[in-house]
Amino acid sequence: MKQLQMVDTKTQYLKIKAEVDAAVIAVMESSQFIGGKVVSQFAENLAAYHHSKHVVTCANGTDALQIALMALDLQPGDEVITPSFTYIATVEVAALLRLTPVFVDVDEKTFCIDPVAVEKAITPKTKAIIPVHLYGQAANMEAIMTIAQKHNLFVIEDNAQAIGNDYIFSNGAKRKTGTIGHIGCTSFYPSKNLGAFGDGGAITTNDDALAEKMTMIAAHGQSKRYYHDIVGCNSRLDAMQAAVLNIKLKHLDEYISARRKAADTYDVGFSNHPKIRVPFRDSNNRHVFHQYTILLENVNRNALHNFLAEKGIPSMIYYPVPAHRQKMFNTFGESSFNLPITDWLTERVISLPIHTELDNEQQQFVIKHVLEFVNN
Ligand SMILES: *Cc1c(COP(=O)(O)O)cnc(C)c1O
User: Is 160 near ligand 1, meaning CB less than 6 Å away?
Assistant: First the structure.
């Protein structure tokens, strides 16, 4: 059996090696390392994939979120509603910009921000909501957009884990996640569903003015070369990453299918187990399984993690500490947030290996050992 890994970017690369190598060498030969045609082509291809009017490329997913927030002209102390059950980047950028993250609880089935909790958290200072499409499952965007419209709030989707997910509205209309809110942010960190060979990020929007402003912000606020109209930052997707991403984007739907197929195999292996809750498949979106995260009931989760490690099976806890309990937010006083579902999930979730290169033998091995432990 092939050794199990959380992600297998190497085997994935080997399958497209000739094409990727040629594209990277072409960038080196052109010596156009920053900007240029390869980067603008990728932005166009990504926009076409999303049916999004604009794509602004940038250096990573965290910058994408930061640039999005910078474009909204918020004032220090303005409130941004986000889940605490997420990767720290989502909320760190708000704090960095002297905005106030307001953590709300998640839905216990989808693990994504709970629209009812969002509406309850709105105050006169609230300016934006950042739903996170966690593990590849979309947040309830229809409800979130209704709330946002009612209260005149911006919505920035953190789409770092769900690129390619199709969200389906109750009237049947379909949209890619990342194109439903005012702005969508994604990451091309190598282990993400569309991974580069280094860092990268992108922002999607259908709003012309926001696109123009975010393009400026990512380039030191410049409107034309050496004329800086607003304070920005330096955040660029480099041409080598764009060259790799141009090729991998063509395979993204195939990669998503492979992840969904692997998830189906796990679902069957764990079906109807009293101690294992498999990922919820909400009918309003097509889960892209950035992670396959199960919820354990009456199982010593950390002991399972260690047991699997002994068998050569990696597993991860995403995330061991929710944002509202991180030291960086101590100044807020963590007790000011009461997030029982977030705390409950944090103690019980565990993510199993999932990627595009998993084979059935590997998955049966994982299933067998998870069951062996939880049945004891
Ligand atoms: C990966 C990730 C980010 C940040 O992306 P980077 O490219 O690592 O900066 C933000 N939010 C979520 C939910 C992520 O998973």
Answer: yes
Q: Where in the chain is the domain with CATH 3.40.640.10?
A: 9-104+111-249
The secondary structure of 173-216, three-state, reads CEEECCCCCCEEEEECCCCCCCCCCCCCEEEEECCHHHHHHHHH
Q: Which atom of ligand 1 is nearest to the CA of 134?
A: 13
Cβ of residue 90 lying under 6 Å from some atom of ligand 1: yes
Atom of ligand 1 nearest to the CA of 201: 7
pTM: 0.97
Ligand 1 atom nearest to 199, measured from its CA: 7
Tell me the CA end-to-end span of the chain in Å, nearest whole number.
25
> Which 3 state secondary structure label does DSSP give 158?
strand
* Cβ contact 103:76 at 8 Å: no
Closest C-alpha residue for ligand 1 atom 6: 61
Helical pair 360-374 and 239-269, crossing angle rounded to 10 deg:
50
Cα–Cα distance, 59 to 187 (Å, whole number)? 9
Contact 89, 62 (CB under 8 A): yes
Q: Which of 6, 69, 157, 187 to mutate for ligand 1's pocket (most ligand atoms within 8 Å of CB)?
A: 187
CATH topology of domain 9-104+111-249: Aspartate Aminotransferase; domain 2 (3.40.640)
For residues 103 and 115, is the Cβ–Cβ distance under 8 A? no
Residue 32: exposed, middle, or buried by beta-carbon count in 10 A (0-12, 13-18, 19+)?
A: middle
pLDDT 10s digits, 3-47: 999 999 999 999 999 999 999 999 999 999 999 999 999 999 999
Contact 277, 301 (CB under 8 A): no
Note the pLDDT tens digit of each residue in 119-170.
999 999 999 999 999 999 999 999 999 999 999 999 999 999 999 999 999 9
Q: Is the CB of 69 under 6 A from ligand 1?
A: no
CA distance 34 to 39: 8
Q: What is the CATH number of domain 252-374?
A: 3.90.1150.10
- Pocket of ligand 1 contains residue 86 by CB under 6 Å: yes
* Location of each CATH 3.90.1150.10 domain in the chain: 252-374
DSSP 259: H
